[in-house]
Specification:
The protein is of the alpha+beta class and 483 residues long. 23% of the residues lie in helices and 22% in strands. GO terms for molecular function: hydrolase activity.
């Protein structure tokens, strides 16, 4: 069976139903785009030999296409059928942890042992656990935890084997499922309620993710192990993983994952601010050798493809594969789920669907508009800062943004270090990205109030190269420029 819906959860509707932005333009897809999306989904299901596979595409906060292939429950749109989503659960857990930080209850750079009496890993910081750099073992102790009940590991000490640490904390990326069990326990301790209860109240309900559940609820599909060399299969167990649940327990639908994708793209003040989501998307450590295009942030994976950064997470549990990937530049997202332990290339399919949308229907840029309201006077006051500056002989251009923000970019094709800056006060800005992230840009004035130079992390920028009389470290040659 192949099913295609123009808008998840509303098969009878002619137009997509928005998640967050009722006025978003160009959310309807062209027929040829929809056909290519449906074809790619069908090919992935057939070649990957998945009993069922469903995908949903989101653009500008709205679902624009959903399709499903295979054995799907009758009477429900494919985007409303529950599949297990595996480690996408980790990203939801990470959002809960960032909420604790934003409320001032924890510090990401302090050891988790300050708030949770962890039997192992207590010296690792919360950020290290979020980014899989705590050095903890990849898997829980005992038999394969994803296929055995959580009762085998009832308390935190039970999830760790005889060698809980595999690497020194903070030194390298090493994916750790038990690390997220610790983060779930941290949420429970500080919220005074079970991890999933907090998740449902603080994240799922505000985002309208009513179809995301701890265990399977109808309509749902069975998870299957498909024989690699024959058209045969057997069901996989769907266990309650107990203490390991924050690492991979949840069931969801592509409709709900589409809502989560819209949130990860734009934020929601009721759940997490855009600034905190930006932290989650920032690389935490260098990639491992052999995996250079992919790095990990705080609960999110980042991948470089075709010159752009994609953000998301994959998931797998016995009988299930899932992927949720976003293209922030295009404001698009794709969720894919399948009920097979292995076979379908879910991660590749998410990238293909994003690429199809980008190639066939690229996002229109927001129209340029002049400054308005309070920004007009603020921008006029900062005009003397704009234009050409020099660090040594390297030319730069300083330009203004909204709300007093500035950017400093190399001039010409010679290269150099570029950064954007957020205003802190009358004469001070904070670097947001690039080489100068976290550094202070300070405007210095002469006695008559005229701007004399800029200081950026001890680098002095002047209006002319090695301007005479400017406080350039080491000074300028008294003879000036000579042949």
């Amino acid at each position: 069976m192949t099913t295609e819906n123009p808008s998840p959860g509303a098969a009878e509707a002619a137009r997509p139903q928005p998640f967050a932005d009722p006025g978003a333009p160009f959310t309807d897809l062209l027929p040829e785009t929809r056909r290519e999306l449906a074809h790619r989904v069908a090919v992935c299901q057939a070649e990957g030999r998945a009993p069922a596979l469903v995908a949903t595409v989101v653009r500008a906060g709205a679902p624009v296409w959903s399709g499903g292939v295979g054995e799907l429950p009758a009477g429900a749109g494919p985007e409303r059928v529950r599949f297990r989503i595996g480690s996408i659960t980790k990203t939801l857990t990470a959002v809960l942890v960032l909420r604790l930080r934003d409320e001032g209850l924890i510090d990401l750079d302090q050891p988790i042992g300050r708030w949770l009496p962890a039997p192992h890993g207590s010296g690792a910081t919360v950020a290290q656990l979020l980014s899989h750099t705590a050095g903890l073992a990849a898997e829980a102790r005992g038999p394969w935890w994803e296929r055995t009940p959580g009762e085998l590991r009832p308390e935190l000490p039970d999830i760790f084997g005889p060698e809980p640490a595999r690497h020194p904390a903070g030194r390298r990326f090493h994916y750790s499922n038990p690390g997220y069990a610790l983060l779930g326990a941290l949420v429970e301790r500080l919220r005074g309620e079970p991890w999933f209860a907090a998740l449902r109240r603080e994240v799922l309900e505000p985002l309208g993710m009513a179809d995301t559940s701890y265990a399977a609820e109808e309509p749902a599909v069975c998870g299957w192990a498909v024989h690699p060399h024959a058209d045969l299969r057997q069901p996989e167990p769907a266990v309650d993983t107990g203490r390991m649940a924050p690492a991979g327990q949840l069931w969801s639908t592509t409709r709900d994952l589409g809502r989560f994708a819209a949130f990860l793209l734009d934020g929601d003040p009721a759940v997490l601010a855009q600034e905190s989501l930006a932290e989650m998307r920032a690389p935490a450590v260098p990639p491992e050798p052999g995996d250079w295009p992919t790095v990990y942030g705080l609960g999110l994976q980042l991948a470089r493809e075709d010159g752009r950064t994609l953000v998301g997470h994959g998931g797998s549990m016995p009988g299930f594969l899932a992927g949720l990937w976003l293209d922030p530049e295009e404001r698009t997202g794709v969720a894919v789920v399948a009920n097979a332990t292995s076979g379908p290339g879910v991660r590749a399919l998410t990238r293909e669907l994003l690429a199809t949308l980008r190639r066939r229907e690229p996002t229109f840029p927001a129209p340029w508009r002049p400054a308005a309201g309070a920004d007009v006077e603020a921008t006029r006051a900062l005009l003397p800062l704009t234009g050409s500056w020099f660090w040594g002989t390297q030319g730069y251009v300083l330009a203004l943004g909204a709300r007093g923000a500035v950017s400093l970019r190399p001039a010409g094709a010679g290269g150099g270090r570029a950064s954007a800056f957020r205003r802190l006060g009358e004469s001070e800005w904070l670097g947001l990205d690039g080489y100068f992230a976290g550094e202070r840009l300070t405007v210095h004035r002469a006695g008559d109030g005229r701007i004399s130079h800029l200081d950026l992390g001890t680098f002095v920028f002047t209006r002319e190269p090695y301007e005479p009389g400017a406080p350039v470290p080491g000074g300028a040659d008294p003879a000036g420029w000579t042949a």
